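User: Modeling request: complex.
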Amino acid sequence: MVDSPAPRKRKGERALAADMGWAETFIAVDWGTTNRRAWRIAGGTVEQEFEDGRGVLSVAKPDFPAAVAEVRERLGDHPMLMAGMIGSTRGWVEAAYVPCPAGLDEVAAALTWAEPARTAIVPGLSNRDPPDVMRGEEVQILGAVAAGLIPANCIVCHPGTHNKWAVVADGKLARFRTVMTGEMFSLLKEHSILSDLLTDDMGIDEAFRAGVSQGVGGRALTAELFSVRAGVLLGRRRKEDATDFTSGLLIGTDVAASLGEAGDGEVFVMGRPDLTRLYAAAIAIAGREASEIDGEAAFLAGIKAIAGQT
Amino acid sequence: MVDSPAPRKRKGERALAADMGWAETFIAVDWGTTNRRAWRIAGGTVEQEFEDGRGVLSVAKPDFPAAVAEVRERLGDHPMLMAGMIGSTRGWVEAAYVPCPAGLDEVAAALTWAEPARTAIVPGLSNRDPPDVMRGEEVQILGAVAAGLIPANCIVCHPGTHNKWAVVADGKLARFRTVMTGEMFSLLKEHSILSDLLTDDMGIDEAFRAGVSQGVGGRALTAELFSVRAGVLLGRRRKEDATDFTSGLLIGTDVAASLGEAGDGEVFVMGRPDLTRLYAAAIAIAGREASEIDGEAAFLAGIKAIAGQT
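Assistant: Request completed. Predicted assembly structure:
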């Protein structure tokens, strides 16, 4: 819960957002680390949108008011509801974490107001043990529940730089775990001894499947990674297979460990389609089935629900 | 085996090196990725030495003859016997890998001569399944056997950027595995979301022991890593513990997986004393004992044995 400069009004906390004037027309923003995406929504319908590279890391702290104003210049002078890294220590205004288990009611009740009645930031979620944090994915996951895209009890995998595995129970986000799979792949690709081997686009092929199987097998990831290079040096692995094998290895290791922790339940992979297909393929190799959910549709469902536009 | 421009002479291959004139005075070089170390050895005794930052990555390909000449300018105009990354694709002259199992005889018989009778490079070793390669550590490990620093049957852990776990059997290096633990720590420290937390020197304290225990527990490394950041964000972990916890986590994960693969046997940790003490402490937490062996003493024993100066 955060201190809010906005007055608390009648009824449940959930009514707060609606009371602030979202109901007619508002701007929703998913403001991440490297990108931001914004939609003007009126009566539940998207009227206009844009995406650009102005993620929080590209904006200096004093420049956030201007970066926010720029969104209004493009989409109109409306109230704004923002989610993601914009509310982090590296963002504009820090929005406190709501502890799990949490549903849309708890999230909507804990908005941080950057300008009273005009501009609000959705809180992140925190997990107690092990300590973990999430910003942005909670809108998608809880939005998907609200829109009936996923059931009230299930497991959600949300791949990205920091892959989130969430357990949804009774319609709330009960607990979650972050796995640095995407960031690890980037580190290896950009800065490691494997850099000159990891130059292709990621795809689903035999090398990917072999990597997943190796990862699911549960041997030490840091040992398997070096064998990618040694295999090429010794002529035992094709250089052009290195990217897919390595991506499969990282994803397979992630999937095996995380499905084990998450337990039984139907699995949904949510997010960018280019990533959800890789994870869905890996989850199938690990012996479970997964349905893919488009992250944008889920985000819009969640942000509209928080704004009272269900 | 590599083609050698030097004539093969009488007796066993091992005699080759001695016949080339190492026996009186020679220069031994351990030429790594980021550093090189050189010793002038006469009749088995080190007379003079130096270490500098001219690792292979700092030398452009055409500049290697000059970089080699510089060693002779400092230590005298003697035959040179070199080991390490100088024989890699990124080094001066590529020295082929000798397949495991291999002992000092096989290594001494497969020198690559950069200049006939003057300058030779020790081959690396290769492991068949999983594919793996080693350059430089084999001189230390087989040298330690030759000098009686370790028994003819044991397990050796050689920490570094690419940590090597070797099984020694009947005095030969039977098989080995590389784990990218050191490089992974560097990637996280230099380029990751944990960079601003990993700023202290590594030490052995409660945070290190907690990290090792977590790593030995075998949960997914990439998940545990993110909890370092989340723990600090949520005030559940002290920022000043992050370096030691993370180093413990990586080393503990490495130790648990690698000891399991290596099997039973007395464990020796060989290399730089600042690293061997961290690994010896982690191995003890994992329930095994390890003796520390100074890497320089082992290297000198190995290179002298290859040169016939036992």
